[in-house]
Amino acid sequence: MPRDNMASLIQRVARQARITFRSPAGPAFGENLHRLQQLLDEVRAEDLHLAPRGPSAAAAVAGGGPPWAGVVPPVSYMHICETESFSMGVFLLRSGACIPLHDHPGMNGMLKVLYGTLRIACMDTLPAGAAAAAPPPPAAGSSGPCLRALFRSRQHYTPASPPCLLSPHTDNLHQIDAVDGPAAFLDILAPPYDPQHGRDCHYYRLLEGSQAGAEPPALPREVWLVETPQAADFWCGGEPYPGPRVCL
């Protein structure tokens, strides 16, 4: 059997990601991105030797609040591979966990749900000149800069859904909530976060009182955001990746 046919699906995804993001401004980028999207759409939890977490990870605590609060990280990350052009890994969200609204400066991204259900709210930043009115006054304790954004969509994603895509200019800000139990997704970012090269993660919240994961009025619509520090109740732990080895 030819060597390429023996490669695991996640190995093929990694190879295609390397080809795709090696030349993101090249003439073949669109075709390569489409091929990567097709491969990513095939990935299932079992391909990475993952299984949904048990009832203890999804059960609600009597009296309210998630069972992991203050005990274990609400979100964990399994590192698979990283090059100068992209990184790939798996995020695991416990029941009720939320990755707060954040950005991906100058980056492309792809997200494929492996198990569970995610609610993903996506936004675009708007040019400063696009702001037609002054922002509402920030709440007490908010001191970060404000920016205008287009709240584009808020959708549920399951393993049957196609990958969620983001680009440097479209759906670049998003919030991810686990719905009705734990969830996991395969994540590709290109290029990886790198604060020394201006690719640091920034967190935001809506200035209108509602949260990005809450039921919004009709979309798309323009909103004001305020930059905030990382929330005290959000942090990300690490777990070993149990799936097939990836070599690049």
UniProtKB/TrEMBL annotation:
The keyword Oxidoreductase applies. GO terms for molecular function: metal ion binding; oxidoreductase activity, acting on single donors with incorporation of molecular oxygen, incorporation of two atoms of oxygen. Gene3D superfamilies: Jelly Rolls. Pfam families: PCO_ADO. The keyword S-adenosyl-L-methionine does not apply. GO terms for cellular component: mitochondrion. Keywords: Dioxygenase, Iron, Metal-binding, Oxidoreductase. This is AEDO dioxygenase. It comes from Smithornis capensis.
